[in-house]
Design brief:
alpha+beta; 2 domains; four-stranded antiparallel beta sheet; two-stranded antiparallel sheet; 22% helix; globular
């Protein structure tokens, strides 16, 4: 069964695993297309399944390598962890910080995180449910510790 987490508009820059040293690398690719919606003239973002290959440029600040590459998202995501049998992934460190803050908060209102609202709105309840919360906190904390 697909979930809204599976359909996303990708940002133009996000974190991937460096193909050479496996540290965090910045990956740049064109954002998902936006098309003009008729007759209103408004814009509509074309949502794509995130589980796909993407071609773009990467640059690793750890080993200095850069170049053109093809990634398979979310397999090549730098910020990913299995939480109680489901894959959590995030576009970047800020998404992980916001998710951890949200999960540990007593008052969980996604609107309190305007910079990560779009990401949190797509986050499956599996990652924030009370029964999975301890594992989520542990894994998210570890993700942030590995990227410090």
């Amino acid at each position: 069964m697909s979930h809204i987490y599976d359909y996303f508009t990708n940002p133009s820059e996000f974190s991937v695993m460096c193909p050479k040293c496996e540290n965090e690398a910045l990956f740049e690719t064109p954002s998902d297309p936006i098309e003009k919606q008729m007759p209103s003239g408004g814009l509509r973002i074309i949502r794509n399944n995130v589980h796909k290959k993407r071609i773009g440029l990467y640059k690793c600040s750890s080993c200095g390598t850069q170049g053109k590459t093809t990634i398979s998202w979310p397999n090549d995501a730098y910020y990913k962890a299995e939480i109680k049998g489901k894959l959590f992934w995030a576009w970047n460190r800020d998404n992980v910080i916001a998710t951890l803050s949200f999960v540990t908060s007593k008052h969980r209102d996604k609107k309190d995180y305007p910079e990560s609202l779009k990401f949190l709105m797509h986050l499956p309840s599996h990652f924030i449910s009370a029964k999975n919360r301890p594992d989520a906190i542990k894994k998210l904390t570890k993700l942030l510790g590995n990227s410090a």
